[in-house]
User: Fold this.
Amino acid sequence: QAQLVESGGGLVQPGGSLELSCAVSGRTFSRYAMGWLRLAPGKERESVAAISWDAISTYYLPSVKGRFTISRDNAKNTVYLQMNSLKPEDTAIYYCAITPYFSFALEGSWNYWGQGTQVTVSS
Assistant:
């Protein structure tokens, strides 16, 4: 079983920035795509960003493209999400997740995810 632990969430004013990180440990797939999901009250869960195991391919939710950047460090088994120009509508619980295929990530199909970290954007 894989364990995913997110960190870096918090309260930030509109226009501010936060960087989320997620460390993966335990038994995992030999190679896997990584990504971030978010869940806001009254809304469906959505995939925010994803990155392939070799970091060649990435995906961004249209509403965050140009503001968020996903990256990974395989030596540290860690994925990051740099969030800039944050908006109130970005407020949600953000979850780190992994899946064996990047194509699965594009479909929003994830095998494992963490407990989440709260991101609140408010003035």
